[in-house]
Amino acid sequence: MVQIAELTKDRSFRNRLILACISVALFVSVTYVVVSYRLTSELGVKTELNAMNLQARIIHNELANSGKSLDERAMELARILFAENQDLAVFVRVTGHDASWEYANKIPSSSVPELLNAISQQPQDSQGQVTTATGDFLWHDYQGQQYRVQLIQSNTALERTMSMVAKRLSIVSLIVFWIAIWLALTLSSFIAKRVQQKNDALAKIATHDTLTGLPNRLFLLDLLKRELGEAADKPRPDTARQETEGCLFVIDLDKFKVVNDSFGHTAGDTLLVEVGRRLKSLLADSQVLVRMGGDEFIVWASGMQIDTAKALAEKMVEICNAPVMINHLAVQTGASIGIAHYPTHAGSGEMLIVSADTAMYKAKQQHSGAVIFDEPDSEKYKASLRLRTELAQALEREEFRLYYQPKVALATGEITGVEALSRWHHPEEGILPPGAFIALIEDSGRIQEFGRYVIRHSIRQLAEWQKSGIHVPIAINLSPYNLLDPGLIDFISEQLDANGVEAQQLEIELTENETSQNINSIQQRLESLKQLGVLLAIDDFGTGMSSLAYIAELDVDIIKIDRTFIFDMHDNHKHQAIVATALTLSKSFRSKVVAEGIENREQAAMLVEMGCDYGQGYLYAKPVPSEQMTDMLRENPCLQLA
């Protein structure tokens, strides 16, 4: 994983960029000097050749108009023209129709033939530059009307020219170099700044949540490694570890999925931003709030002890419970918080998160708000994680089986229907009850897939019983999340038609408290189910906090009284009153009433006396596999009490 420090600070790049720019500046300066040198040299040679041309013409004209002999006048001219620079190597040859004269200074006579031979091999021209073992020379060949003047001299043009411009060239070169350096440093500083800005932006993107602007998991892990001293190559000494402590909170919103599915993702995003803002306002500057993804937040409070953490967690729960206005509606969501302390509960950042996550799931199951990590919970959490990863394969392998518990007419014991209850036939753990996996399915996002799985197998079972002459309805439990499945109604209709089963043979049981909270979002689906002919039932009636108006709006066919009120109704007058109220309501709503959890004859007799017609429970039969239920329906359609 790329370290955050590598993104935010890259000094080596700046140094390399400055070095590259200085190299470019030096190259520019050197190039300028070289070009200036070459231009100056060429200019000096051209100037010197022009001077030699002028000298040759003077010699020719003076000799042509002189009354003196060639040798005498030529020598006079040589003294005049070359007297000022006795150190100059010069060779002059003058030839006419009947005379010839030569003059040499600083050029050995033995070298003259070599020079003349080299000049004769030059391209046909009147002047030029030639280099021999003796040195570098300039030459000019002037052909007049009476005389031919050949002039050769050492090439001192460069030295003379450079002596005049060297100082100026040095100053200009220095100025050019420093200008280039200044431009290089300015450019490198600008580029480095822009690159750093890009790095900072990338670090922000990599370490912060784009929705809430809060730090993310990468930021948290890096922070914990630095604060807890978890080096990449060696562990921190135990003595140093004991100097650091802190508490980590994992916060999970309880009803976020309901809000997301009911009001849309935009509403869910609004809720997350507002909850993040509220939590941030509650924390001190030294405490870090992180969004881990989805509806989960994490708080790292360095230096905090467990006692203080519990109080802070309670404030967080209170803030998350406060309503949030979304689309002019007050939406209320709760929170489950897990707390883990370093180093009491974990010795590393990763394990600290796992420990707090474990405590959070326990808080969610218990609906207790906040829970401090307890070591025995860790094994349960690991087991639940393993089960969660196996859900997909379990659905593909059809490891989930439907068990059936009969519903009976209390007066006669006749089986009037069955309730389908899921069991997971796990290859290693054995048969697992719904409580061990339903919450995992909901959290994993496979609840709609699982709902269709149950519907498909229930309708197939109805078709098999129908072929055998058995006609009893099957009731299945569906979560409100299943009713949010946009293709659910069409799926049920297709399954019923494909298997030749009437819709009245299928009952949908909905939990009261969950249904009442989502009545507005699922009302249309429930009406579609009623139009299809499917029967609707309210399960666990009496345990929810909904108003009776919600129950009336659902237009249900069956009301199932929760087992909580049946268990001790013989000596609990309040529970008797609730059962009596449910029976009265059922008559008003023209619904059937089914009492759940009947375990003894006294309960059954009391229910019959109160006017309850139907019930189910261990007194009659426990949930059994489809084969046993089939035999029971064939051989003993009436369950007589012993």
Which characteristics define this entry?
single chain; 642 residues; alpha/beta; Beta-Lactamase; TIM Barrel; 3 domains; 8-stranded mixed barrel; 5-stranded antiparallel beta sheet; 22 strands; 53% helix
Layout of secondary structure:
Elements: H1 4-8, H2 11-65, H3 70-82, E1 90-95, E2 100-105, H4 112-120, E3 127-131, E4 136-143, E5 148-154, H5 157-207, H6 217-227, H7 238-241, E6 246-253, H8 256-263, H9 265-282, E7 287-293, E8 296-302, H10 306-321, E9 324-326, E10 329-331, E11 335-342, H11 349-366, E12 370-372, H12 375-389, H13 391-396, E13 400-409, E14 415-426, E15 430-432, H14 438-444, H15 447-467, E16 474-477, H16 480-483, H17 488-499, E17 506-511, H18 512-517, H19 519-532, E18 535-541, H20 548-554, E19 558-561, H21 563-567, H22 573-589, E20 592-595, H23 601-610, E21 614-615, E22 624-625, H24 626-635
Parallel strand pairs: 11-12, 14-16, 16-17, 17-18, 18-19, 19-20, 20-21
Antiparallel strand pairs: 1-2, 1-5, 3-4, 4-5, 6-8, 6-11, 7-8, 9-10, 13-14, 13-21, 13-22, 14-15
Helix pairs in contact: 2-3, 2-5, 8-9, 9-10, 11-12, 15-17
Give a concise summary:
This protein has 642 residues and is of the alpha/beta class. The chain has 24 helices and 22 strands. An eight-stranded mixed beta barrel has the order 13-14-16-17-18-19-20-21, surrounded by four helices. It has a five-stranded antiparallel beta sheet with strand order 2-1-5-4-3, sandwiched between helices.
